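Bench log, entry 3. Co-assembly request; chain sequences pasted below exactly as received.
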Amino acid sequence: MALEQNLTDYRMKIDKTDIDLIKALQMDARFNLTEYAKELGITKNALCVRIKKLRDKGIIKGSLIQVDLTRFGYSCIGNLGVKVVPSRMHEVLEYLKGIGGVGLFQQTIGTYNIFVWVFLRNVSEMQGVKERIRRHPAVLQVKASIWIDTEKALARPENISLEKLTGS
Amino acid sequence: MDKLDRQIINFLLKDGQLPFSKIARELGVGTSTVIRRYNALKSEATIQRASITIDLKVCGFEQVIFFLVRLSPNTDAQKFFEKVSHLRNVIVVSHTVGDYDFLVQAISTDIEDFNAIVAIIQDLPEIEYFDLCIGRMIIQDFPAHAYYSKAFDQSITDNEQ
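Structure output for the full assembly:
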């Protein structure tokens, strides 16, 4: 498996300070490196070397800001679970690409075999999207959920467990 | 939010660590203007935070799991939200309306990891039932650029019309 292969290469191993650094950057990628270095009792340069190492290993890929999408005129974010006839999966995936409001989606196993993210201007558009998808002959079922309180639904990097990367 | 705010956001969506002075130069405004706008956007929570993106696959995560949850009647949704928000490897929790009450998105490295998270969710007394979708780790960077940029680009197009 990918992780075990990575760990046998000793250069992939990182330590607890690296993990703490990743966590700090995930919470605020723009924090003051000099102050943080002082807190850790290392030099700013040592910190930059660690960051570069994490980038070289491909663990850190880049950065972005997380925004509340509902402020950009997309007041309705939701998810759809879609059940399709398995032999016509490809056809339905192509069909979804052409539906306005449909954002990201992927094939899944479980209760539904396609999981969809929708970004709509308002809640009333959801029914329309659901209907359009349901209309496809290979679609067996569509269930929808609309997000309430998108501010609190922020993606949570703090819960991601990176301990395995230390090789322990 | 005006055009300048959107332009600043557009830069930062691609690189959340871009120096304010560089953004200012590109947009032909003063650095202090950019800083002021950024702080304002943050305080009103339009910008939630600047974050690094990590590669979940490189970190060993192979599956993404979507739990679509129905709560038992008379459950305190807020309490449930608090509880689930701190679970290991749970990356998104959202209170919803519609066919389900909550979306819980988690990630796992292998079968053992997957079984562990499902066992925890299954044992929660607040849950009446849940449906489950498991997918491969297709979108590897977290937080995902694709999630924000697709919706944001759409909104830029709409606003220009």
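The longest strand of chain B covers residues 127-136. The CA atoms of residues 53 and 142 of chain B lie 5 Å apart.
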